[in-house]
Amino acid sequence: MSGEVIGIDDVSLTYHAANSDVHALDNVSIFASEGEFVALVGPSGCGKSTLLKLVSGLLSPSSGAIRVNGREIRGPTASVGVVFQSPLLMAWRSILENILLQIEIRGLRVQDYRETAQELIQLVALEGFENAYPHQLSGGMQQRVGLCRALIHDPDLLLMDEPFGALDAMTREQMNSELQSIWMKRRKTVLFITHSISEAVYLADRVLVMSPRPGRIVGEIKVELPRPRTVASTETLEFTHLTRQVRQHLNTEEGIG
């Protein structure tokens, strides 16, 4: 891995409301290299999703700077792809049309990306469903479509906001395995939000822990488990030790331990 893709430098954000201000993030700094998978865990309301909105250019920080590939983010950019908590598919569009919607929104020639869309559909094992509609797909399959849509324009950075949180345990486990496989083939830099400690350790090269609001980075755990990781990896003493480290950071910040 080489070269900084994400540079979040002393970023703070305060929401100004009529009755009171909300200090959401406090001096957050995160740096990620090319091809690195970074997971972000923290309690509800700590600002994880807000941070992703800042990196995607949907919000602007109150102070500090955010860079992608060395360029400061001042609005939405083609360098970033986003996978949301819900796949947000258009019910009246086919799977292929939903994937290509990203291209239409960006004002690019749809015809130039049809082959790429088919490659992505094959990559996520949805071949044969190109002309199906969202209601004909399971939740896991819909999230695969959302992943294709985020990758179609070949971004350098992939932001994932707890994309598997609404799935059942077995489907979530399968999606984690598939995401790891896709990441190993594509080697995108990933910033992945999750409430699941085991999911973070399973997927990431590094796990960053956030404090309760205002969100700060209070811990960093390097995950050096060999890849590809499997269900058997989660049953090792090393995996258990890593999840315990993450949990200790969370418990300390929440005043539990």
Instruction: Report the count of strand segments.
Output: 10
* Strand line-up of the largest beta sheet: 6-7-8-3-9-10
Order of helices and strands: EEEHEEEHHHEHEHEEH
Uncertain runs are none
Overall pLDDT confidence = 91
Choose one word for the global shape.
Answer: globular
Strand content: 15-25%
Largest sheet: 6 strands, mixed
Counting DSSP H or I runs of 4 or more residues, the number of helices is 7
> Which bin fits the share of residues in helices?
25-40%
Round the Cα radius of gyration to an integer and report it: 18 Å
Name the structural class: alpha/beta
Task: Calculate the terminal CA-CA distance, rounded to whole Å.
Answer: 36 Å
If you had to describe this structure to a student in words, what would you say it looks like?
It is a single chain. The chain is α/β, with parallel strands linked by helices. It is built from seven helices and ten strands. The chain has helices at 48-55, 95-105, 114-123, 139-151, 169-186, 197-203, 237-253, and strands at 4-16, 21-33, 37-41, 63-68, 71-72, 80-83, 157-161, 189-193, 206-210, 217-222. The strands form two sheets. The protein has a six-stranded mixed sheet with strand order 6-7-8-3-9-10, with helices on both faces. The protein has a four-stranded antiparallel sheet with strand order 2-1-4-5, covered by helices on one side. Strand 9 and strand 10 (217-222) form a beta hairpin. Helix 2 (95-105) packs parallel to helix 4 (139-151) and helix 6 packs across helix 7. The radius of gyration is 18 Å and the shape is globular. It starts with a strand and ends with a helix. The mean pLDDT is 91.
